[in-house]
């Protein structure tokens, strides 16, 4: 914990929007993450909502564009927003926006050269929460996870694979079945290899169908004017899988909304309320 | 009006966040501006709040970072956010961030080479409102103006110089007396020349003291941890000038807040409410 370095601190809605940098043991590189500390955090431990961002994002996109701090300041929620991949000159990369740096897909890569650093699943599930819970006054075990697009995929996967670890999960325009769409097929082929049986561990639609224990309710918002809807997202596949096994899903489709942060900002308060209710216990 | 071109359209809080491009006759170049159309604008004409941004900003900063659309969607306010200077390869520039493109200071330049394009005062006061009022369903004459830093200066100046033209004005961390601080002295020397008597027409503290007619109440928010407070902003000069002549001023100082958009976002709702009250008539 000793290498945690604060890069930014801004007063925001009575609390603090910070950005920290640390050396990640899982990823083998320096990583930035944003932390919003609501005013309540000055007085008492608060629950934490982890936000996983989409392709090409850093820790900055959510904290500057989603407008989440206003409602989080009312609800007393800490918001933690990590970067989307390992970073740096020593880390494998690809010129495309949808592979390599900025496109970690929240998996533990098994294939060279990616396996040397690309362990975003471990980072998000284990290392980052351990760091946050050691460094900040948080209510132990009260974690929620949410995300957007690739990060919506990440949020669904980490919640579905770790019963009891998260009290709540939600997603905006998630890639619900990366095994079956171009973004996911490209990334999983590179990171996980050609044996598709290994892909199911990172595919929310597959995970919903395999789950046997706790069935954490899912909240998913999807814009109908999303430019990636028919090609990459397919929320109806998640809907069908949930219906098949009786997994609770609230899927809201919104006419006119596209894939970007104006969509996220328009409905982020509903997601924060959803998480705050689950985390109140 | 016929060259108005829509570059972006995003559903946002039930309305539309658009970005347009047009050829500005005042500036002699293409200009971008953001328009937020609240849901009420689908049914009826709405009032318009003009937002003037600070140094280095384009039309994007306010629309992506301030989180203003949420409250504007409730109040039925149209938000118009222009770029901060003329732009393009044919337009004079300077490598410094505080002169030339991105730093128009809302003046009509009289000195070469700036005088060829830098007429942001005319653009903001005359050309842009005429364009907006012709192209969108707006309530005629119901204009407010607000801004941040250099744009806070711009908002105060255009409102103080044009009694009756604006129903409301407010500013975040404005440069209240550009004639007397480094940013303003540099820009005004370049744009207006060495005769400082010409500078008073663009100096809010000077204008407050000269005003004889309508005294539009001013709302100003200032962060106490603003890194530019003592060097460039000096809200106490505005306070003293307003006290001297009885100009109504609400100056709010906020401990811990800095100069950035996290500060603006934290208090933008109060400003939107302030403008909506004045524009309701």
From TrEMBL, chains A, B:
Keywords: Hydrolase, Serine esterase
Originating organism: Aerosticca soli
Leader sequence residues: none
GO MF annotation: an example: carboxylic ester hydrolase activity
Taxonomy of the source species: Bacteria, Pseudomonadati, Pseudomonadota, Gammaproteobacteria, Lysobacterales
Annotated catalytic residues: 149 (charge relay system), 226 (charge relay system), 259 (charge relay system)
Keyword Hydrolase belongs to the record: yes
EC number, UniProt record: 3.1.2.12
This protein's name: S-formylglutathione hydrolase
Catalytic activity: S-formylglutathione + H2O = formate + glutathione + H(+)
Functional note: Serine hydrolase involved in the detoxification of formaldehyde.
Keyword Hydrolase carried by entry: yes
GO-annotated biological processes: formaldehyde catabolic process
GO CC field: cytosol
Similarity section: Belongs to the esterase D family.
Record-linked InterPro entries: AB_hydrolase_fold, Esterase-like, S-formylglutathione_hydrol
């Amino acid at each position: 914990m000793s290498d945690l370095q604060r890069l930014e601190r801004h007063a925001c809605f009575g609390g603090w929007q910070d950005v920290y940098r640390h050396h990640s043991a899982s990823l083998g590189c320096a990583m930035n993450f944003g932390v919003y500390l609501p005013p309540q955090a000055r007085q008492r431990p608060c629950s934490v909502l982890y936000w996983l961002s989409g392709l090409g994002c850093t820790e900055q996109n959510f904290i500057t564009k989603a407008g989440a701090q206003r409602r989080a300041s009312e609800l007393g929620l800490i918001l933690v927003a990590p970067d989307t991949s390992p970073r740096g000159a020593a880390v494998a990369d690809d010129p495309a926006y949808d592979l390599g740096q900025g496109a970690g897909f929240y998996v533990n890569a098994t294939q060279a050269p990616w396996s040397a650093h690309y362990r975003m699943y471990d980072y998000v599930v284990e290392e980052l929460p351990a760091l946050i819970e050691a460094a900040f006054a948080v209510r132990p075990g009260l974690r929620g996870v949410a995300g957007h697009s690739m990060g919506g995929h990440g949020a669904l996967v980490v919640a579905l694979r770790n019963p009891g670890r998260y009290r709540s999960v939600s997603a905006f325009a998630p890639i619900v079945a990366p095994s079956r769409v171009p973004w996911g097929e490209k990334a999983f082929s590179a990171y996980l290899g050609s044996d598709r049986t290994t892909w199911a561990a990172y595919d929310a639609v597959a995970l919903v169908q395999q789950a046997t224990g706790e069935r954490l309710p899912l909240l998913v918002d999807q814009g109908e004017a999303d430019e990636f809807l028919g090609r990459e997202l397919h929320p109806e596949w998640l809907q069908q899988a949930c219906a098949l096994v009786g997994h609770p899903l609230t899927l809201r489709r919104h006419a006119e909304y596209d894939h970007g942060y104006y969509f996220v900002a328009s409905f982020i308060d509903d997601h924060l309320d959803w998480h705050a209710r689950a985390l109140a216990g």
